[in-house]
Design brief:
Number of helices: 11
Bound molecules: alpha-D-galactopyranose
CATH topology: TIM Barrel
Strand content: 15-25%
Distance between the termini: 15 Å
Number of strands: 9
Radius of gyration: 19 Å
CATH architecture: Alpha-Beta Barrel
CATH superfamily: Glycosidases
Shape: globular
Mean pLDDT: 97
Largest sheet: 8 strands, parallel, barrel
Length: 344
């Protein structure tokens, strides 16, 4: 679609990695040239207990990507979510100490990255280290190690695979306060000589948020740091937002009410058109800044596989992607293909 401009990626679910969802794989081959696994490489899946690594699914994911010459993204080495409790605990269940946690982090990063050295092209090294106000999130990594856990993670990643691209990934980086926090974080790493190749802005967007101007400002600001800019988890929620929340904090869970699920059967045409326009507006910006953007990853192949059917409200019918539940292309797909063809 955007072959000469930037990679167009997608996220793969377990069923897709195991080649059960074959219709999705046909779409993958036709439209995408980069992949990210939804869960296969998260700590709880790949390293569930201290001496147990579970590589089966991640291996299949990497094989699949290599077979089709995809740009393969490793997601994710350090995060506060989907990380088992043992990582942060000592034998009695109390918080462990800094040295032990650093040692665990280093073992984890080295073991996984070395296994996929030469196959995985880029890694989300640290995910979501910032709060909405741009300050460090007070997660267990921060509490036990201190603010330099980010630097350490990037050092270990470089040690594991000097060739791989290394990224910082987060949501809501279009919000000026958080954007500035990310800029400070990257500058700090750079001033210490740490290799960081890119910033991933998780594009969990809405029909009415964010303003494309904020998105554009972020792309420009991040590229001025001299790093690649990536939109890493793009999807556009079309359903009402409880509390007008616009971030992607996984711990939120609102109760299902009828008014939160207005289109349980099908998406009315006027919303379908709005969605197409919204995708087009975003892609116009990506295309305009294609000299700064290295990859845009859509967070899923078809609506039926999207996490937004279950977050932040469980059991809704959402329509955030480019293909519908019947694997049919949506007007949004045509709209972005047109933009990709524009060579201006
Ligand atoms: C965050 C993570 C992703 C995924 C989404 C929800 O954005 O980075 O791995 O869990 O939440 O699917």
């Amino acid at each position: 679609m955007f072959n000469d401009d930037f990679y167009i990626g997608t996220e793969l679910t377990k069923d897709q990695i195991l080649e059960k969802d074959t219709r999705a794989l046909a779409i993958l081959k036709e439209y995408f040239n980069s992949i990210t696994a939804d869960n296969a490489m998260k700590w709880e899946s790949i390293h569930p207990s201290p001496n147990e690594y579970n590589f089966e699914l991640a291996d299949r994911f990497v094989e699949l990507g290599k077979k089709d010459h995809m740009f393969i993204v490793g997601h994710v080495l350090l995060w506060h979510e989907q990380t088992p409790d043992w990582v942060f605990q000592d034998e009695s269940g109390n918080l462990t100490d800094r040295e032990t946690l650093l040692q665990r982090l280093r073992d984890h990063i080295l073991t996984i990255m070395r296994r996929y050295k030469g196959s995985v092209n880029g890694w989300d090294v640290v995910n979501e280290a910032l709060d909405e106000d741009g300050q460090m999130r007070k997660n267990k990594w921060f509490e036990i190690i201190g603010a330099d856990y980010v630097k350490k993670a990037f050092e270990y990643a470089l040690e594991a695979d000097p060739e791989a691209e290394l990224y910082y990934n987060d949501y809501s980086l279009i919000n000026p306060e958080k954007r500035n926090g990310a800029i400070r974080l990257v500058r700090k790493l750079q001033s210490k000589g740490i290799k960081i190749d890119g910033i991933g802005e998780q594009g969990h967007y809405h029909l009415d948020f964010p303003d494309v101007k904020e998105l554009e400002a972020s792309i420009i600001a991040f590229s001025e740091l001299g790093v690649k800019v990536m939109i890493t988890e793009l999807d556009i929620n079309v359903l009402p937002r409880p509390d007008q929340y616009n971030g992607a904090d996984l711990s939120l869970n609102f109760e299902l009410k009828k008014e939160y699920n207005p289109y349980p059967e099908f998406l009315p045409d006027f919303v379908q058109q709005e969605l197409a326009k919204r995708y087009a507006d975003f892609f116009k910006i990506f295309h305009k800044h294609r000299d700064k953007i290295s990859r845009v990853t859509i967070w899923g192949i078809h609506d039926g596989a999207s996490w937004l059917n279950n977050w932040p409200v469980k059991g809704r019918t959402n329509y955030p992607l480019l293909f519908d539940r019947q694997y049919k292309p949506k007007p949004a797909l045509d709209a972005i293909i047109k933009i990709g063809k524009n060579k201006k």
